[in-house]
Amino acid sequence: MTDVAAIVLAAGESSRMGRPKPLLPLNGGTFLGHLLDEIRASRVSRTTIVLGHHPDVVLEAMPEIAPIAIVNEQYQLGQLSSLHAGLRAVGDQPDAILMCLADHPFISRQVLDAIIVAHERTHRSIIVPTYGGGRGHPTLFGRQLYAELLDAPLDQGARVVVRAHSKEVLELVVDEPGILADVDTPEQYEQWLGYWRSQKR
To answer: Residue 182's pLDDT is what?
Structure first.
């Protein structure tokens, strides 16, 4: 059984949204809560949540996540700094990590499991789900890339590692447009909420 750890990045300032994106309402809960439910129902072995901007606000709203949450004190250095914090927390034991974003919650356990199964089947070091030709989230990185991710320049993000290993990337076609969800503004939130509700009818 492949040991895959999920690292959920929830450290951003949510400045364009005007309120913490991990706590946005979804499905009777929150973005972060829904994402965690899907992760728990999948084949992911363990989960680490990386908080940053006002972690006390998120923890007060969701005290149940405290045992698996860490705080990236350098969150202002960008998303990769939070992935670094998550990687240091999980260590090099997992066979692979799934980099999940708290503001991309419109995914299902089926997508998570499909990515893990694809990694087991192909042994590719990077697996990215795609829909309609567009790459989405979450992204899987194999253990052999942990050190390279930790060495990557903070201003370039994990994409610099993806580009450096472009021939090793497996684009996994999935039937979920939610992998493309980019929720930065109230308008985008309403658009994707409409999509989500239409899928649940």
So the answer is: 84
Q: 3-state class of 58 per DSSP?
A: helix
Residue 79 has pLDDT above 70, yes or no: yes
**Helix intervals (H) in the chain:** 31-40, 55-61, 79-90, 109-122, 146-151, 159-164, 186-199
Q: Tell me how far apart the alpha carbons of residues 88 and 101 are, in angstroms, rounded to a whole number.
A: 17
pLDDT value for 196: 85
Alpha-carbon distance of 176 to 193, in angstroms, equals 14
Tally the residues of the chain.
Answer: 201
Is 149 within 8 Å of 141 (Cβ atoms)? yes
Q: What angle do CA 108, 200, 60 make, to 5 degrees?
A: 65
Beta pairing class for 4-10 and 46-51: parallel
- Element (DSSP H or E) covering residue 69: strand 69-71
Asked whether residue 73 carries a pLDDT value surpassing 70, the answer given is yes
- Please report which confidence band the pLDDT of residue 201 belongs to, taking 50, 70 and 90 as the band edges: low
For residue 39 the two structure tokens come to 């992760």
Interacting residues of 145 by C-beta distance below 8 A, sequence separation 6+: 125, 126, 161, 165
Query: Tokens 């450290």 sit at which residue?
Result: 11
Q: Which residues lie closer than 8 Å to 155 by C-beta, 6 or more apart? A: 78
The token duo for 51 is: 């908080």
| Average of per-residue pLDDT across 99-109 | 94
Q: What is the DSSP letter of 124?
A: -
Q: What is the largest CA-CA distance in the chain?
A: 45
Q: Which amino acid is at 90?
A: V
